[in-house]
Amino acid sequence: MAKLPAFLFLLFFSLYLSARDSLPAADSTAPLLSPEKTAMRSVLLPGYGQWSNRQFVKAPLMFSLAASGVYGSVRFSLLSSAYEKSTLVRIGQNTLLDDPYPGLSNMEVFRNTFRYGDYKRYSVFFTLYAYGINALDAYVVARLKQAPQDHAPLRAAYYSVLLPGLGQLYNRKYWKAPLAFGLVATAAGFSAYYNGFYRDFALAYATRTDDDPLSEYETGFTSAYLTSQLRSEAEQWKNYRDMAYLATVGIYLLNVVDAIVDAHLYNFDLSDDLSKKKEGKRLRLMPFAALSYPGDPVNGMTLSLEF
């Protein structure tokens, strides 16, 4: 686990650099497929859309990320299921099952049940993240090759999906970047915090209800509860954890929406002087005179917006 921060840093840094290099200039070669078809290729096979966009270096990276997530999800799901089965047998909730780990102590089985359950959830989240980045990258690159933009909302969306706050930095909303990252990190922190309480109460309940007098797990919180109360407390903390997961996803999506909106408004003129020329746009109000039928003079005003 100590290597995880370094791995995540290298992951985000490599994806960020590849994102910068992949969003082309106006003279780039157009892709062979439409953005929608390119993204669909990446959904069917991670990296295939990047290969279609002629990004041959990035294709194996995307495939490796998605494949690693799928492998971890399957492996940890199988281990979590086996340890959950062993736990149910040992606390007497299902006597019809065979214990997959008869040689392990109850405490080892209970701890591994929660450990691999956490690993399974993290692997599933990572798989969804890798697949989403893979498909979005293929779509964004194909779209911007067809219609390059100096400040593209698609680019801001890509950056914000890649890492919360990165799209805000791209939009030069520097004060929003730490706010976006901090909110997502805080919600994720609450998820881990609630999950810790769920694990403590569930472990305490399991060790009190098994038939092994040597297995005992208590904390300063769990020791104050009766055995009949531990299970309901564990379910309550589990619900808190699941709500924190949903809050994390919701804030993460709001971070992406905020980056897209700011990117659309990036070149919008908010000055009071609408007649001021800015980036090729000017609003002009001018008088005009004309002759109407049968020759009477008509005076008026014209309002024109130049792009």
Number of domains: 2
Tell me how many strands there are.
Answer: 2
Helix content percent band: 55-70%
Could you state the order of secondary-structure elements as H and E? HHHHHHHHHEE
Structural shape: elongated
Main sheet attributes: strand count, strand direction, barrel closure: 2 strands, antiparallel
Description:
- The chain has 307 residues and is mostly helical.
- It folds into 2 domains: 13-148, no CATH class; 149-266.
- It is 64% helix and 7% strand.
- It is built from 9 helices and 2 strands.
- It has a two-stranded antiparallel sheet.
- A hairpin with a 3-residue loop joins β1 and β2 (296-306).
- Residues 21-28 have low confidence and may be disordered.
Give the gist of this structure.
By secondary structure, the chain is mainly α. It is about 65% helix and about 5% strand.
Topology, element by element:
Elements: H1 4-22, H2 35-44, H3 48-52, H4 58-90, H5 106-146, H6 153-162, H7 166-170, H8 176-209, H9 227-264, E1 282-292, E2 296-306
Antiparallel strand pairs: 1-2
Helix pairs in contact: 1-6, 2-5, 4-5, 5-6, 5-8, 6-9, 8-9
Descriptive terms for the model:
single chain, 307 residues, mainly alpha, 2 domains, two-stranded antiparallel sheet, 9 helices, 2 strands, 64% helix
